[in-house]
Amino acid sequence: MTYRAELIFVLILGPFIAGILICYGLNFAELYFVWSFSTTIVFLLLFIIRYLYISIKVYHHKYIIGLLLYLLSFLLGGLHCIHFYSLGKINYFANKSGRFLKIKVDNEPERSRLLLRFTASVLEVSDGHKKYQSEGKVLVTLQVDTVKKIMISYGDILLIPAIYTKVNSPVNPGEFDFRSWLAHKDIYHQLFLGKDQLLNLSQNRGNPIICFALKLRQQQITYYRKLLKDDEAFAVASTLILGYRADLSPETMAAYSRTGTIHALSVSGMHVGIIYLVIEWALSFLNRKKSWRIIKVVLVLTLIWFYTLLTGCSASVLRSAIMLSVFATAKAFRRNTNSYNILAFSAFCLLLYDPFLIWDVGFQLSFLAVFGLIYLQPAINSWFYFKSALLTRFWSMISLSLAAQMTTFPLSIYYFHQFPVYFIISNLFITLPIAALMYLGIAILLIRVDWLVMPFEALILFTNRGLHFISHLPYSSISGIWINKTELLLLCLWMILLTIGLIHHHKKCFLLSIILLICLQCCLVYDQVTTKKQQKILLFKLNRNYAAAFISADSAVVVTNLRPFEKAFAFSIQPALDQMKVSTVNCIDIEKDSLVHGLEIRNHQLTWKKMNILVLDQSFDNQKILNRPTFDVIWFRESPAQKITDLQQQVNFKTLWIDGTSSHYMSKKYEEEARQLDIPIHSLRR
Where are the domains of the chain? Predict the structure, then answer.
């Protein structure tokens, strides 16, 4: 019973999360009533049983109380999720018609080139005469002027036109699902505004503590910008110390990602832990008396939570702040704590704050990594024993890296489709530099010791160069790993059973893990066989560009005017090729005659396998096609002045493709005419 009391939050967290997962997206008023009624009934039953505990001899059937507590936790999780789901509420702003929206900026706006992006809560919908109190969130993207700067801050109240649209689903295979990502933040609509389409009604109407923290962070970022001459050093310093990531270059992000050290750039438990150690050391003189220890824990908690606000309150930072708060409080009062219960308590508190965090990748990976450190690290660390203290410390650091990597491995490859081969080397390499950078960076901000800037900047550049070197070593990263949800489930179950079998010497778990591994291998072999047999054409929706991939087994010829190093190619085309397990890619231009891997382009004609495609552009304007040839597809590009009815009299064809190089007006015109003639058409304009 004592053991269960120590793990109370571990026991209730599971059913609470299950309730959130099951009720996500359910927005019916009847369901909300039924769920609320069921929750009330279960709560009353528990109250009655507790009141009549001895008289009805419930102590003979304690399992009934346990089941009711689990059921109550499940129902409360579901009820909490339904309550937070704004799209299902009557006063959701999209359910009301109006010309204007009154919104409040919810976060610090992110600036990139000529755009400013932020999320906002909708307060009112108005049509000029009537105002309706509303709720819900919206993503706002604002075009900014390079000359006249628009100043928008957290907490500002803005009046904007109600020209919102629903967030679209991804239009290309394997593309990042921006719609789901926003939906898991309870955002379902977005606005694109010009620089003169908003009116700032009032400023600084947000939480005063958050306003102060964000303003202070901006001052520290400005101070770093003044001292650090190298742009990359400034970006890393701002990210590492203050959680400000807007200025990080793609190359630096890629180097940290490929080496498995991206966690170093995400302010997390390691960073908050270093801050805690500094505060603990500075206030150690307060340990002499009990009353002083209380003052100390108040100061520690205040400073930790202020740093949490300063860094933007990400899921990993909040988790660390909650855990350290419980640990510091228990230490002050000489109480023992259970690590699993503290971890579960942290997750429970965060899900009470926002149940949609359960889908946040950072939330998932953060808690899995800490669980690995608590559960796996001691077991891995016990594999070897060294007499040397230095070797013992070295192996301890390796075991930490292994434990965190093992627990996050399945989700990491599912979400990011890559695995850093040299993660142990890179994590060992950055351990000391990151700690030193934290101490130097904090010292520069707190005591304004400018002479530390030179070693601080040099250490950042040294760390970056080292990680760039590791990331470019042969086979430094296995990329293009795509597994489906079934394979993810098999992989997770295999690792869980294998771990239990090895640590606790459980033979049945070990045998089951072997069976699951065989099943997983069968799925992967099936994927490989399917890949070797595939013959496909992938058409991509793009803006002002075109791309069509002709895939044969694990090779593809991509007809496109994009190049692999361009952002549009990496975002819209490469993920689809990786998902199809394509290992060899050749990019060719449609305007050049060529023959590559069975695809021939000659005289505006594409031939692949038994398929013939005619590419129709402006060079065909005012010309007639003789002898009435037959094609499977007519590919329209660059808005040719052709009527489909006239084309039908000159060419036999089955399908039309219209790519992104055609204008919006002409694309619509082609689509309407094709629908009237009942001709299949694929519009590839994004």
Answer: 2-84, 93-206, 211-479, 485-533, 536-683
Tens-digit pLDDT profile for residues 583-639: 889 999 888 888 888 888 988 899 998 889 998 888 888 778 888 888 999 998 888
Q: At residue 304, does pLDDT exceed 90?
A: no
Average pLDDT, the chain: 85
Structure tokens at 350: 């965060």
**CATH architecture of the domain covering 536-683:** 4-Layer Sandwich (3.60)
Confirm if 467 and 441 have CB atoms less than 8 A apart: no
Look up residue 215 and give its two tokens. Answer: 């303003």
Give the span between the Cα atoms of 130 and 100, in whole angstroms: 11
Distance CA 49, CA 34 (A): 22
How many other β-carbons are positioned within 10 Å of the β-carbon of residue 269?
20
CATH class, range 93-206: mainly beta
pLDDT at 539: 92
Residue 165 bridge partners (DSSP): 190
Whether the per-residue pLDDT at 455 is higher than 80: the answer is yes
Q: Are 66 and 127 in contact (CB under 8 A)?
A: no
Using DSSP's 3-state secondary structure scheme, residue 18 falls into: helix
| Nearest Cα to Cα of residue 554 among 573, 587, 527 | 527
The sign one gets for the Cα dihedral 630, 633, 639, 642 is positive
Gap between the Cα atoms of 3 and 338, Å rounded: 10
Other CB atoms within 10 A of residue 335 CB: 9
Does 282 or 101 have the greater pLDDT score?
101
H or E element in which residue 49 lies = helix 29-51
Of all helices (H) and strands (E), which one includes residue 515?
helix 507-533
Tens of pLDDT, residues 334-366: 667 788 888 888 889 889 988 998 998 888 888
Q: What pLDDT, on a 0 to 100 scale, did the predictor assign at position 1?
A: 44
Report the DSSP pairing between strands 555-560 and 110-112.
unpaired
CA pair distance 616, 632, nearest whole angstrom: 13
Q: Residues 205, 157: contact at Cβ < 8 Å?
A: yes
pTM, rounded to two decimals: 0.85
324 and 272 Cβ atoms separated by less than 8 Å: yes
- The CB density around residue 626, as the number of other CB atoms within 10 Å, is 7
Residues 371 and 473: their CA atoms lie apart, in Å, by 31
Distance CA 11, CA 71 (A): 12
